[in-house]
Write a structure and sequence with these properties.
The structure is a single chain. By secondary structure, the chain is of the alpha+beta class. 43% of the residues are buried. The protein has one domain. The chain is built from seven helices and eight strands, in the order E-E-E-E-H-E-H-H-H-H-E-E-E-H-H. A hairpin with a 6-residue loop joins strand 2 and strand 3. Strands 1-2-3-4-5-6-7-8 form an eight-stranded antiparallel β-sheet.
């Protein structure tokens, strides 16, 4: 589930996985796939020839809360409206609490998840950049201190609030962490400060 992270631009923001059967991430009203986030994080955090690297992620913006939906209501099955309602209607929340684990095969549902995101959201190329002077990272309109962005990376590595099922990471997460470790800039393991948003 999305957790609270501190941005330098918008105060506390929600970031994270929000459905265990997909590999979509949410940053407030932005949606993008976790493998794109991992690729961008690697570009931005692994030191290279460019001291101020830039990249972008393909995604969607759902600025209208009614079109986004109600996460807790969708999980409970009582709010089947908006993107989140449609997503949880397609893949309901598991009845067994032990099954509440982020699925490392969520990428298999990418086409269906993208179709729903496109139905409710506006396509968006989300810029991502590292500012070496301020030591901040931009993701769309949101700006994060490097240490907080590293917490976001560690969150994805952990599999969010529920963790990856059986601690198995998807290949794109393993590749990101391998690159960060090789460069000596892997973040410490994520420990949530508080529960889901």
């Amino acid at each position: 589930m999305p957790l609270a992270f501190r941005s330098a631009s918008h105060g506390t923001v929600a970031f994270g996985f929000f459905h265990i059967e997909t590999d979509l991430l949410l940053l407030e009203r932005l949606l993008f796939f976790a493998d794109d986030f991992c690729r961008a994080a690697t570009v931005l955090r692994v030191p290279g020839a460019d001291p101020a690297p830039r990249t972008s992620l393909a995604g969607w913006c759902i600025p209208d809360p009614r079109r986004l939906g109600d996460l807790h209501g969708a999980i409970a099955g009582r709010a089947r409206w908006g993107f989140l309602g449609a997503l949880y209607a397609r893949w309901p929340f598991p009845r067994d609490p032990a099954a509440f684990r982020q699925q490392p095969e969520g990428f298999r549902n990418r086409a269906a998840a993208a179709e729903l995101a496109a139905r409710f959201g506006e396509p968006r190329s989300i810029p991502a950049a590292f500012d070496p002077i301020r030591r901040t990272l931009e993701l769309g309109e949101y700006v994060f201190a490097a240490a907080e962005f590293d917490r976001m990376i560690a969150y994805v590595d952990r599999g969010g609030w529920p963790r990856w099922r059986d601690e198995v990471r998807p290949p794109y997460v393993a590749a990101m962490m391998s690159a960060l470790r090789a460069a000596g800039c892997a973040p410490p393991p994520f420990e949530p400060a508080e529960g889901p948003e």
